[in-house]
Amino acid sequence: MAKKTATKKKTASKKAVKTSRKTSTARKGAVAKAARKTGKPAVKKAAARKPAAARRPNGPAWQWSAVETAAAIRSGAISAVETVEAHLERMRAVNPKLNAVVVDLSEEALAAAHAADKQRAKGGELGLLHGVPITIKENVDYEGRPNFNGVPANKDFIAPSDSPVVRNLKKAGAIVIGLTNTPEFSFRGFTDNPLHGLTLNPWDPNVTCGGSSGGAGSAVAAGIGTIAHGNDIGGSLRWPAHCNGVATIKPTQGRIPAFNASATAERPMLAHLMSAQGPLARHVADVRLALEAMSKRDPRDPWWVPAPLVGERPKGPIKVALAKIPEDMDVDPSVRAALRQAADHLERSGYRVSEVDVPDINGVWQTWCDIITNETAVMQEAGMLKVTSEDFHKAWNGMKSKANVLDLPAWMRATAARSGHIRAWQLFFEDYPVVLAPTTVKPTPGPRDDTVSAERVQEIFWGEIRFISAINVLGLPGAVVPVALHDGKPIGVQLIAGRYREDLALDAAAAIEKRAGVLTHRLWETMV
């Protein structure tokens, strides 16, 4: 029985082969016949289909988002060298007027771009930001270069290694094309110093680009790099983002590692706990991408936390608290309109927005001011005043005049109060996972307004940007996204979320951006 079955299978196999040969012969004959009719040579087998050509985004390369740029380089639509060259050309065109980038790393960047293209050609593993041009703020260590931090006397502070944030960005494949300007000791909300001079706002030279990451904000808004690194201890990411019409996230403290080997001493405890590294970019998606690249572990930062970048989504429509503004803050109508517009964008995106009081914003701000001012006065003031300009002294004295002088018992009570404030906000986020708040309640001030008087400094930090600086003492994540233009200048709003919930803040920012648009596209139309 088995032999008969095997014989049948063999016979069937022979018939199949015979039929296949006949079909093949007939096909060849048809091809040959067609060739005789057309005069073209017969093709024995169909040519392999070529892969579709990689598509380039529209417009010049310097206008692309970081997400688009990374994808285009990865697919072969553009080389890293061509991308970097486009950004360097843009830098040469606009930076002489803006003074945003103060250290030109063109040669180093082009060498890195050539290496990036070779790595791709070999089929090597590519990072999140492979070949993507970025800038770094000149107050973190960049190996082999002085960490000036806006101070000429810091010329001997040569970085023996890259800071963690620089190392992480390079590991992700990003290419640094320049270092951006910052005020002296990164301690002002306005970007000017005796070493490099004043950085201008690309929207209007008569208003500030913000600080202390003002060079970063000005550069990325103008099209110099797709992502700009910055940092924030009192608003130094969110304030420049507002002034320059770009997006950012001040992450939860501990999210992105920080350390400068060039520093002569460790940072005071509260200064470290209130400071955060972060990205500025034209698109919220780019901010999210950069945050992922920056957040990798570095053993040099003992405060780094391996928290997930995405948490559990709150149930039902997410409730957003539109923060009630204290009565003593004089709100410009343009700011109130921008907040309402942002709230409307969120409502249309499925959020539920209610105007409510947030936990003790005034007490939180005063705690921030008292802690940072007293800590700086004890640990750094004498050394800073010896090597800084009169403008720095004016700005610093203005900050000090609003702070309470704390003895040791008062200092301990202030640091204890910080824990109470954080707890109150964390409980608030149980009901309202996102807070929509102003960045400033006034139009953007002039480029050197903090040097007018001590009273003007108080007015700015307490009366105008209270909702920015207060968040630092809480260590909470805060995103900023542009919403509208008023008199040709951008207005941004702030989205605050619970600890390590940058994803919620960025989701809300992205919902606003989707309806408000990317404002820098309008800026480029006005720039020569």
Can you tag this structure with a few keywords?
Amidase signature (AS) enzymes, 11 strands, Amidase_dom, Amidase_CS, 18 helices, FAAH2, Amidase family protein, alpha/beta, 528 residues, disordered N terminus
Descriptive overview:
The protein has 528 residues and is α/β, with parallel strands linked by helices. The chain has a single domain, classed as Amidase signature (AS) domain (Amidase signature (AS) enzymes, Alpha-Beta Complex), CATH 3.90.1300.10. Helix content is 46%, strand content 12%. The chain is built from 18 helices and eleven strands. It has helices at 2-38, 66-75, 80-98, 106-121, 164-171, 214-222, 238-244, 269-274, 284-294, 333-348, 361-379, 381-387, 390-402, 408-431, 454-464, 466-474, 502-516, 520-526; strands at residues 101-104, 133-137, 175-180, 227-232, 247-250, 276-281, 319-323, 352-356, 434-438, 478-486, 489-497. The chain has an eleven-stranded mixed beta sheet with strand order 1-3-2-4-6-5-10-11-9-7-8, sandwiched between helices. A hairpin with a 2-residue loop joins strand 10 and strand 11 (489-497). Helix 11 runs antiparallel to helix 14 (408-431) and helix 11 packs across helix 16 (466-474). The protein starts with a helix and ends with a helix.
